[in-house]
Amino acid sequence: MPQKSFKPARLGVIGLGRFGRLHSLTVAALAEAELVGLVARRQASLDALAGELPGVPGWTSLKEAELSSRFFPGFHWGPRAPFSITGEPAMFVGGS
Q1: Which terminal residue of the chain, N or C, has fewer Cβ atoms less than 10 Å from its own Cβ?
Q2: Which helix (H) or strand (E) holds 59?
């Protein structure tokens, strides 16, 4: 069977409580996904994951993340979460 090539799904996590932390670490370990960003209310939550997820940017507000369009090109930020308008797989998942 021929091997299929694919682009990894670009995912971010909003909220870094117990489940958000678990989502972040899981997504980072998947070959099928690229963890592109984290959003948390507290800087301490971002700092706690920085050692385990080097190079993954983080913000303490959705507005800050939105303004960092170099990490999120083509995203439209709606009232609850962003979604891709580029046609490439992309989503943000919430954790608590």
Answers
A1: N
A2: strand 58-59
Phi-psi region of 49 (alpha: psi -120 to 50; beta: other; left: phi over 0): alpha
Domain count, the chain: 1
Most distant CA atoms of the chain, gap in Å: 48
Contact 17, 95 (CB under 8 A): yes
Range of the domain at 30: 9-76
pLDDT tens digits, one per residue of 13-53: 888 998 999 999 999 999 988 888 899 999 999 999 999 99
Under a CB-based contact definition with an 8 Å cutoff, are residues 11 and 5 in contact? no
Whichever domain contains 61, its CATH number is 3.40.50.720
Sequence-distant (≥ 6) Cβ neighbours of residue 8 within 8 angstroms:
30, 31, 32, 33, 34
- Alpha-carbon distance 95 to 67, whole Å? 21
Q: Is residue 31 part of a domain?
A: yes
Partner residues linked to 35 by β-bridges: 11
